Amino acid sequence: MDQRGIARADTAVRRRAEIPVAAFHGDGAVSPREILRGDLVTVLYRASAADADYRFNARITDLVQEYDVVVATLSDGTTLGADLVVGADGPYSTVRGLVFGAR
Fold first, then answer.
1. Same structural domain for residues 77 and 96?
2. In the beta sheet, which residues pair with residue 81?
3. Contact, 103 vs 97, CB < 8 A?
4. Calpha distance 90→51 (Å, rounded)
5. Sign of the CA dihedral with 80 first, then 85, 90, and 93 last
6. Looking at 29-78, which runs of residues are DSSP E strands?
7. What span, in angstroms and rounded, lies between the C-alpha atoms of 15 and 94?
8. Which residue segment(s) compose the domain that 17 sits in?
9. 13-48: b (≥16 Cβ within 10 Å) or e
10. Which residues of the chain have pLDDT under 70?
11. How far apart (Å, rounded) are the C-alpha atoms in residues 69 and 78?
């Protein structure tokens, strides 16, 4: 893959910062050792779908750690108890905020 580097742009698509490809020591900004987010999601979902309770189009509004379980409250009022909660809700994660506090 031909790569020139990576750049950050503002909402008017003006470059605000950039890192040339040479800064990655020949690996490029997207190296062969990386996996795209969508590919990772597919691999994890297929590997765990039979044993995990996936809830799509549901939002976690509260998390409470009890002795041996995490209780998650969803936006529809449903509560779920789990050994493990995986927050896969993106870079502005509500789950991260509930666990570690606001940014």
1. yes
2. 71
3. yes
4. 23
5. positive
6. 60-65, 70-74
7. 29
8. 7-49
9. eeeeeeeeeeeeeeebbeeeeeeeeeeeeeeeeeee
10. 1-4, 25-34, 103
11. 16
pTM of the model: 0.56
Dihedral angle over CA of 72, 78, 81, 83, nearest 10: -50
Indicate if 13 and 44 belong to the same structural domain.
yes
- What would the two tokens of residue 74 be? 């969803």
Q: Please state, in angstroms and rounded to a whole number, the distance separating the CA atoms of residues 28 and 3.
A: 6
Q: Is 4 exposed, middle or buried (0-12, 13-18, 19+ CB in 10 A)?
A: exposed
How many CB atoms are located within 10 Å of the residue 82 CB? Answer: 13
Question: What is the number of helices (H) and of strands (E) in the chain?
Answer: 2, 5
Q: Is residue 13 in some structural domain?
A: yes
Phi and psi, residue 5, nearest 5°:
135, -165
Please name the helix (run of DSSP H) or strand (run of DSSP E) that holds residue 42, with its range, or none. Answer: helix 37-48
Segment 70-86, tens digit of pLDDT: 999 999 999 999 998 88
Q: Is position 54 within any domain?
A: no
